Every structure is written in structure tokens, then in C-alpha cells.
Amino acid sequence: MYEKLDYSKLKLGIIGGGQLGKIMSQMAKKMGFYVTILDPTSNSPAAQVSDRQIVGSFFDKQKIEELVRSSDVTTFELENIDTEILKELEDSGYIIHPSPYVLEKIQNKYEQKKLLDKMGIRVPKYKEVKSTKDLSAFGFPVVQKAKRGGYDGRGVVVLKSLEDVESMAIKSESFIEEMVEIDKELAVIVARNSQGETRSYPVVEMLFDERVNICDSVVVPAFIEKDVEQTALEVSKRAVEAFEGVGIFAVELFLSKDGEILVNEIAPRPHNSGHLTVEACATSQFEQVIRAVTNLPLGSTRLITPAVMINILGEEGYEGEPILEGLKETLAIEELSFHFYGKDKTKPFRKMGHMTILDESVKNALKKAEQASKTLKVKGSKKI
After folding, report:
1. I need a surface site. Which of 148, 223, 260, 373 has the fewest CB within 10 A?
2. Do 289 and 190 share a structural domain?
3. Whether residue 150 sits in one domain with residue 216
4. DSSP string across 140-206
5. Is 261 found in the same domain as 167?
6. pLDDT averaged per 10 residues in sequence order, the chain, 384 residues
7. Tally of domains in the chain
8. Cβ–Cβ under 8 Å, residues 75 and 15
9. Shared domain check, 317 and 286
């Protein structure tokens, strides 16, 4: 299917116009490709750096078909999209990666977990919720997750008692997981091409803002032993191979208190845990996904230098047009790279950008990151 591609005139379609699509588009444009974005918001972040935007819903079959038919290769930056029309288009010969059949398996986190379990990949103990009684099957506390649509802390609740079941339980299709005693949360970005070749990025450690369960910062190399690192890399590669997909996959992992590695979930796209690869690795995750889906050789994933990535979140108590405070002071920090996504509105805890800080020492990078997070603030035009 790739034989007819003319790389000097290649047209890439990206479903989703957020920050991930924006950096993907920037990398595709660097390689000389023509990029079309599909997103419901006109002048979306990705559209600002692309050749064309189709304004439409991720479930608008007509708009999705328009994008795919006008592109040589189509990919996406989010999971919550219509797979039925994409399957029809792929079956008729259009190149779509990761395949909508793979996406469909990953979209449903319960089915995702079942497949990993079937392949012998360790996951937290889980159970489908068919009635309220199932919510207490593992005792309390227990984690309840929506089967579909959850991200950035949405679609996940921790139930600590029967009272929480009454007041907090997710009403949509869901499942429960045992509450793992977590030592660290890790992640591995794995690239896979159409020949089945894989390349894995170094293991990163993720730190979370407990107020909203959003990843706050990412550290590489992770503070883990060599044997744990090796296990994390092996498990992540096996997990991605289980789905036989083409593209970039982020494998989120739990390192339990007793030293076991368990797969939390997989995202079939570039991921927050891989943002620092832009500055810290030989090939960024955003360039790598373009290489993978267009059948170009995968790039080196070598870590050039230790790094810390911190998310720039909208400040509590503000919304509206974003107002940056402390940018000059922040950019005075050595080896700091600033990424602002171009979103036209901020709200509390919304991801507005990120910063990557490099240093020969991870501990020094963390100190500089802490300074940057105190200095830079994104407020809004209105107090709430």
C-alpha cells in the first residue's frame, strides 16, 4: 500500500487539533508534508501550524471521509473518534494508522485490559460492573473506571466506602480495579512500524497533581533499579505487540510496593509522558509517529540528556483569555524550553503548555523545574 506514496508531495491527515496534533503537524511540516487537520474548533492549536483545517466533529462521518480521501496517510491525536467510518475507509484501501480496528480495542479500557490479561501481561485485578453489588466485590477502597472516554483524571473515581458508591459511582458502563499499592507510576513510549519493528524510549517516571489526578511532571531517567527498568521495557514492548498496531503507543505502568510491574493502560498516540523527547532524545515521539505511520525508518530513541517536563496548567480561580505571568523570569532558567499551545481560553487545571528542563543531573533539573513552576503562571481574563 505504501508503494504509491510520493514522499516529496505526501499529504498527511490528522484527526484532532489539540496540542499533540500541533506538534505532530510541526514535525510533519519539517519533513515537507502537506498537513490537514480535522477538529470541531476553528483555528485549533494544530490548525495554526498546518496547511488546512476541516472544521467538524470527530463523529461526523462526512467530514472524516473528506479528510481521509484527501490524505495519503491518516492518523490521530485522540482516541474518542468514530471508528466505523474509519474501518470502512481502511477496508477500501486507505492508509490509516493506528488501524481503526486497533483503536477500537484500545478505546474500551475494559476490553483493552482483557486482551492484555489474555496475553499473559500483568494488570491490576479487575471486574466488569454489571450491578451496584459488583462495586464492592473487591472491598474498599477500590478504583472504578469508565470503559470509554476517560482521560486526565476524568472517568476514574476511588470509592472508599458504600457511602461513596451512593454519591460518587460512575453511572456509565464501567469496571473496577483493585487499589494497587503504588511505589511509582512509570511510562514507556513504544513505536512500531508496519514491518513489526519496535523502538522503545527510556522509562520515565510520572508525578501527579493529586487534586485532579493530572500528570504534573515527568522525569527521565526514572529513579528505578536497572532490573525494574528492563522489566518495564520488556512488558511495554509485549503490550504494544499484543495489539499489532502501527504508530506510537504510550504504555502507562504501575510499580507496586512489592516490586511488580503492572500495565495500567495504553494510549495509541503521542502522550504527555513523551513530551520531553523533543529536547531530550535523538528523535522526538512526534517525529517518530510520523515516521511510523508513513512507513519511513524509525529514528533513534537514544536519551541525549536527563530531563524533566512540567505541565503548565491554568490557575485555580481564573478562566477566559489566558494571561501569562513570569515568562521572562522563567526563560532565564538555563536549558529550559517553553511550549505554549495556543488555546484561546484557560480554565482551572486545563493543560495550556509545558516546559522541558535539561541538565546533566536529574536532581538539578528537578530543582530548576520547581523554580519554573513557581515562577510561571497562566491566569485568565476573568476571576471565578
Report:
1. 223
2. yes
3. no
4. SSEEEEESSS--TTTTEEEE-SHHHHHHH---SSEEEEE---EEEEEEEEEEE-TT--EEEPPPEEE
5. no
6. 88 97 97 98 95 98 98 96 97 97 95 96 97 93 90 83 90 95 97 95 90 82 97 98 96 97 97 97 98 97 98 96 98 98 94 97 96 96 93
7. 3
8. yes
9. yes
